[in-house]
């Protein structure tokens, strides 16, 4: 038994049960604690990572199901310098407690890769992550800035 | 008698604007502080302020970071008085040690409670008063973060004094070097400059000499017009690490050989563990131990998912502690019955009190708010290591590091000196991590003691977090008013239930000549505790809803009605008018739209909201816009203050629209976010925040943004749909479109 996991460009050979949730393997086996536990049932998005570029809520993903896939966590997203979403988050002073923000940033960055200049409605339909501090207005403002830099207004 | 809770989080009155002066540390205490919290090349020059050889200034904050930006704003206050170079200013968390107890907070709340300002304390006693508050803070193990107190207490009574005093000491050190009078020096950008000679010294090179002088508890403070950093929207210190996922919260604690605990607590509050069979998990991979506690069972395993899976397999039997028949309905019935009992405790009466109800047209209404969970994004957790030598080490995010350390020592039954507590940033708190709500510390300590030498990270799942919170209480409030011929209230009589002492937050600032307030204490088996904005969270809804109803009874515009009752409250009136003007109060709305207005003052800050809503085709409400005006005197960090105001709107909206914890057969029904819904981007309105500056004392930011949200929303729903919501949350009500839309 064992799982080959590729995280942030590094391949790990892990002695874990294939049904272990990806979230806890990242956190407790690989010490990648930027990915957060919020609900355990894919309802809040705090655990969002990229699997082959797509945003996935890792708390309900059995690690065995993503063996061989390319997984990126918040630690990997900004590894080569801040991602534009991270920079926009600083420019707009988005985070408060900050706990949901790695998941939020992973969700938004995957979404913008597909739709670089979304409308507010498209953003709201795609990003359903929870932030209890209420940073939502600033998240929207930060994404508007990113969208505007791609040449599209935000009606 | 002031309760500890009142002392820590209560109080709606504003503190005196002026400074008593904080008892600053003598040099032997500075030396102790150096040993506890100074790294190589650093030294304490005054309470809370370290200066390093390379001129780096570190502000040591006796609070936790739970997201409100206070590490930055408190540093601004200290650094401004210190004339520091902001580029070289940092902040860090104070050790959980009595030396770093928060005297300024004790002083602020002490003055507030006694309704004192420094004018009432003779000059020769002021230094002593400051020292007394330091002693009180140590006595109370006070390092609490709550009560929107950081800026208005720690900042006003602590950081400014410490910064100014340190500056004076640095000047003295420079003066001694040149044997010149202190008047010949100016400070700027972390340097002391001697004007006649042009000689200049960096703070770093003077720090050691400066620390030898006795600090003044009454240093000369800057006039407001001289502030350079206070009032500037500087970027927060903590944000870069947070966007990189590099901030280590309590839940991120990593230790060698770390194990994990997953807990199942008696579903019914007060229930006890009767039995549990360990056989089902004995063979599970990684399971170390099943720990049986009084009212819970914990599985300790080498990984959290293994502990979690195992605890889900167990079938523990709990009793109900005699509370099996309690439900939301029985609790609400008890609250109603409490208001109808013959003798209610008279809390306050002005004018002729309730007698004046005979003098006009009677209006009577009853309101209710439900239990609410805090639901911070980081579920509560703590890591504990108990060693065979009798020492205990604990890591957690709480709203009081020193208080937590003392609490853990008591939970373990060992001396404080054997306990180390590491305070981590909190992934949200909102009151959940305040003293008296530390069940997660208790469970972590007891579990650790059952597996000595093994560090255990005990994490509540979201379900356990939601079902074992200390909830914002269910509260019922009844109003009676008598209206005169012009529709204004002659009498205002408010009977309300409370889970604690009577609440001054019930008292209105509107000019009603005869007022009476009566309180009925109702306790149940459901644990309750402070929830962001505490008593103001319910009285704000009650008062501003009833006032709106009176305006409609009087057939007067709700804004104009409030203005008529605020003639002698210029600050309130200006804030209200600013919100109304910016919202375009009175301008046309779409047929299914409505605006509502509400204003609440708490924690020293006045906040007025105009909500704009529309009723959608499926008879639900869509919140389009919140226009907010707020007066906190002056915002230390205007961008940070705005962020807290935005935050309060979203937090308040989540509660008003969806928030409800219900009880069935003695236990909480809701388990996770789908059952306890919150506002997400799709429900997030447009928000505008306008700051109204005044010369009032600095007010709070974290809490005052919550209370006006619910009544502004429900008043807007009434305007749009003709439906008056007297019981939250909104989602429980059918919203029929108003006749005017058809």
What do you see in this structure?
The complex is a heterodimer of chains A (155) and B (742). With 155 residues, chain A is an alpha+beta fold. In chain A, a hairpin with a 2-residue loop joins β3 and β4. Chain A has helices at residues 22-29, 74-77, 84-91, 101-114, 120-126, 136-149, and strands at 3-7, 10-14, 48-51, 54-57, 70-72. Chain A has 2 domains: 3-77, Roll (Ubiquitin-like (UB roll)); 84-149, DNA polymerase, domain 1 (Orthogonal Bundle). In chain A, strands 2-1-5-3-4 form a 5-stranded mixed sheet. In chain A, α3 (84-91) crosses α6 (136-149). In chain A, 35% of the residues lie in helices and 14% in strands. In chain B, the strands form 7 sheets. In chain B, strands 10-11-8-18-15-16-17 form a 7-stranded mixed sheet. Chain B has 3 domains: 4-243, 2-Layer Sandwich (Aldehyde Oxidoreductase, domain 4); 250-321 and 380-459, Aldehyde oxidase/xanthine dehydrogenase, molybdopterin binding domain (Aldehyde Oxidoreductase, domain 4, 2-Layer Sandwich); 475-741, Aldehyde oxidase/xanthine dehydrogenase, molybdopterin binding domain (Aldehyde Oxidoreductase, domain 4). Chain B contains 19 helices and 27 strands. Helix content of chain B is 31%, strand content 21%. Chain B has 742 residues and is of the alpha+beta class. Chains A and B meet through α1, α3, α4, α5 and α6 of A and α8 and α18 of B.
């Amino acid at each position: 038994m064992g799982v080959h996991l590729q995280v942030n460009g590094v391949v790990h050979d892990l002695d874990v049960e294939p049904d272990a949730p990806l979230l806890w393997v990242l956190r407790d086996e690989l010490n990648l604690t930027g990915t957060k536990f919020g609900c355990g049932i894919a309802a809040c998005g705090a655990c969002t990572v990229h699997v082959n570029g797509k945003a996935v809520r890792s708390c309900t993903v059995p690690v065995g199901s993503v063996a061989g896939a390319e997984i990126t966590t918040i630690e990997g997203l900004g590894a080569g310098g801040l991602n534009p979403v991270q920079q926009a988050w600083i420019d707009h002073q988005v985070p408060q407690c900050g706990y949901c923000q790695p998941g939020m940033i992973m969700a938004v960055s995957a979404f913008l890769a597909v739709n670089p200049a979304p409308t507010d409605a498209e953003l709201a339909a795609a990003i359903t992550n929870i932030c209890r501090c209420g940073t939502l207005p600033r998240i929207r403002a930060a994404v508007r800035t990113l969208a505007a830099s791609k040449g599209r207004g935000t009606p | 008698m002031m309760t500890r809770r009142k002392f820590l989080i209560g109080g709606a009155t504003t503190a005196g604007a002026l400074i008593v002066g904080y008892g600053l540390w003598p040099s032997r205490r500075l030396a102790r502080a150096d040993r506890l919290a100074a790294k190589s090349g650093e030294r304490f020059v005054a309470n809370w302020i370290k200066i390093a050889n390379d001129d780096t200034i570190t502000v040591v904050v006796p609070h936790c970071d739970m997201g409100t930006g206070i590490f930055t704003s408190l540093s601004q206050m200290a650094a401004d008085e210190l004339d520091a170079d902001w580029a070289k200013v940092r902040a860090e968390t104070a050790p959980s040690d009595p030396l770093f107890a928060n005297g300024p907070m004790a002083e602020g709340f002490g003055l507030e409670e006694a309704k004192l300002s420094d004018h009432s304390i003779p000059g020769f006693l002021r230094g002593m008063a400051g020292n007394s508050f330091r002693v009180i803070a140590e006595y109370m193990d006070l390092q609490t973060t709550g009560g929107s107190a950081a800026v208005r207490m720690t900042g006003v009574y602590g950081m400014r004094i410490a910064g100014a005093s340190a500056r004076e000491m640095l000047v003295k050190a420079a003066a001694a070097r040149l044997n010149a009078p202190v008047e010949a020096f100016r400070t700027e950008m972390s340097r002391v400059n001697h004007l006649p000679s042009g000689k200049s010294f960096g703070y770093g090179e003077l720090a050691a000499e400066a620390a030898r002088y006795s600090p003044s508890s009454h240093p000369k403070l800057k006039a407001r017009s001289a502030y350079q950093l206070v009032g500037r929207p500087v970027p927060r210190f903590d944000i870069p690490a947070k966007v990189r996922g590099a901030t280590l919260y309590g839940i991120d604690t990593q230790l060698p050989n770390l194990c994990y605990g997953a807990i199942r607590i008696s579903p019914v509050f007060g229930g006890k563990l009767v039995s549990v069979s360990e056989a089902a998990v004995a063979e599970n991979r990684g399971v170390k131990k099943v720990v049986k506690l009084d009212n819970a069972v914990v599985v300790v395993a080498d990984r959290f998912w293994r502990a979690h899976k195992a605890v889900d397999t167990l079938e523990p039997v709990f009793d109900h502690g005699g509370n099996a028949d309690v439900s939301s309905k029985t609790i609400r019935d008890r609250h109603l019955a409490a208001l109808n009992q013959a003798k209610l405790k008279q809390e306050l009466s002005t004018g002729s009190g309730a007698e004046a109800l005979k003098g006009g047209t009677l209006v009577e209404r009853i309101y209710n708010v439900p239990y609410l969970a805090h639901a911070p994004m980081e579920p509560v957790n703590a890591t504990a290591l108990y060693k065979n030598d009798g020492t205990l080490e604990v890591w957690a995010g709480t709203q009081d590091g020193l208080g937590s350390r003392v609490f853990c020592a008591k939970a373990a039954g060992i001396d404080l000196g054997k306990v180390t507590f590491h305070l981590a940033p909190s992934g949200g708190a909102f009151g959940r991590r305040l003293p008296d709500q530390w069940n997660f510390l208790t469970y972590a300590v007891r579990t650790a003691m059952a597996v000595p030498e093994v560090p255990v990270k005990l994490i509540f799942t979201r379900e356990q977090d939601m079902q074992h919170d200390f909830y914002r209480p269910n509260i019922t409030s009844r109003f009676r008013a008598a209206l005169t011929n012009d529709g204004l209230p002659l009498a205002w009589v408010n009977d309300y239930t409370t889970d604690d002492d009577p609440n001054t937050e019930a008292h209105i600032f509107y000019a009603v000549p005869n007022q009476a307030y009566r309180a009925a204490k109702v306790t149940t088996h459901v644990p309750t505790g402070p929830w962001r904005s505490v008593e103001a969270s319910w009285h704000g809804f009650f008062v501003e809803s009833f006032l709106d109803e009176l305006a409609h009874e009087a057939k007067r515009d709700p804004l104009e009605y409030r203005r008529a009752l605020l003639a002698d409250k210029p600050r309130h009136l200006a804030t209200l008018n600013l919100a109304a003007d910016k919202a375009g109060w009175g301008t046309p709305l779409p047929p299914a739209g409505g605006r509502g207005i509400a204003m609440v003052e708490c924690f020293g800050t006045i906040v007025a909201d105009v909500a704009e809503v529309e009723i959608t085709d499926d008879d639900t409400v869509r919140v389009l816009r919140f226009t907010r005006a707020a007066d906190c005197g002056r915002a230390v960090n205007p961008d940070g203050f705005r962020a807290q105001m935005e935050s309060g709107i979203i937090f308040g909206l989540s509660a008003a629209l969806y928030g409800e914890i219900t009880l069935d057969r003695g236990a909480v029904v809701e388990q996770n976010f789908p059952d306890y819904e919150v506002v997400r981007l799709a429900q997030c309105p447009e928000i505008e925040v306008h700051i109204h500056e005044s010369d009032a004392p600095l007010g709070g930011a974290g809490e005052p943004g919550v209370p006006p949200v619910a009544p502004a929303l429900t008043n807007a729903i009434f305007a749009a749909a003709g439906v008056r919501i007297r019981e939250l949350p909104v989602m429980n009500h059918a919203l029929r479109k108003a006749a005017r839309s058809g």
